[in-house]
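Hi everyone, sorry if this is the wrong subforum. Our group has a chain we'd like a structural model of before ordering constructs, and none of us has done structure prediction before. Sequence below.
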Amino acid sequence: MDTARSGTGNGLPAGVYAEAVRTAITRKSPADALAAVLDMAVTSGPGEQASITMRTGRAVESIAYSSDLILQADQLQYELNEGPCLDAVWTDGVFVIPDLRADGRWPRWAPAAAGLGVGSSVSVHLFTDTALGSLNLYSLHPRDYDHADLEAAKVIGAHASVVLAYARTEQNLWQAIDTRNLIGQAQGILMQQYGITADRAFNVLRRYSQHHNLKLAAVAEHLTTTRTLPHLAAQHPSDH
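Answer:
Right subforum, don't worry. Here is the predicted structure as tokens:
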């Protein structure tokens, strides 16, 4: 098979990868941190394009990608429910495709991705103490991956796992802060409208959430947007 070589796959010293991770997690936001890891993957990995798939429960999403073409290649996997990045998300392994047009393991995805312009790929399972997702390294040409390429992909995957775990923690933290602030605003509206205490306002929100089977954040968002709670606008709210 006449294959092209792209990317370095050069097995950079461990200190270089460690410094890249340190740089990533000092970025201002989780998105910036993931972008730094993606840059590292493209610069030192076996491929000129890359993406990171994150697992949340049973859902998966490409949360960082080097181009719209690569996002399309990932999304095809999610739509067709087959492909190497999905297998890498759900199982602990490395999935290598030297030539998409010659690989029969994913009969719907591989030809479709090849039609987009993808030639080959490597997908690596990302994890720390729990499964996180996958690192997907793409080349626009068929490629004979050697041992050094795969070792580089594994090392980059290990470092990407650390940054992804950090990004998820940071994202969850800021979401929690945003939710707390939203609930606080909703409490303030109820306190002002009905002359009740902060504790009683929170109880109103909590009981309304339970009674209507809505998340507390959703109730708070509705209240801060409309300044009313359905069924409570015409009467004094009660937490009894």
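For your construct planning: Residues 25 and 163 are 6 Å apart (CA to CA). Confidence is low (pLDDT under 50) at residues 1-17.
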